[in-house]
Amino acid sequence: MNKWAELLIGLILVNGAIYLAWISSSPDWGAFWNFKHAAWEFLKGGVFWFIVMIGALFILLGISDLKG
After folding, report:
1. How far apart are CA 64 and CA 35, in angstroms?
2. Is the pLDDT of residue 12 over 60?
3. Is the full-model pTM beyond 0.85?
4. Domain extents in the chain
5. Cβ-count burial of 13 within 10 angstroms (0-12 exposed, 13-18 middle, 19+ buried)?
6. What is each CA distance from 46 to 29, 37, 39, 52, 67, in whole angstroms?
7. What H or E segment, with its residue span, contains residue 14?
8. How far is residue 40 CA from its own chain's centroid?
């Protein structure tokens, strides 16, 4: 994959996951994200960290391609 595309996709994934976590904790969107179930909360946290890690992987791959 192109080194710039890897960096861009990584930044979009990391920033998007952080933005969704920020929006879900907002009081205006609280009713939408208020599921009140432990398994669903665990799943949401797992998806968040999975997206952040994939984004970080793309960023690291893009940086290593820039060096090489």
Report:
1. 40
2. yes
3. no
4. 3-67
5. buried
6. 20, 14, 10, 10, 32
7. helix 3-24
8. 17
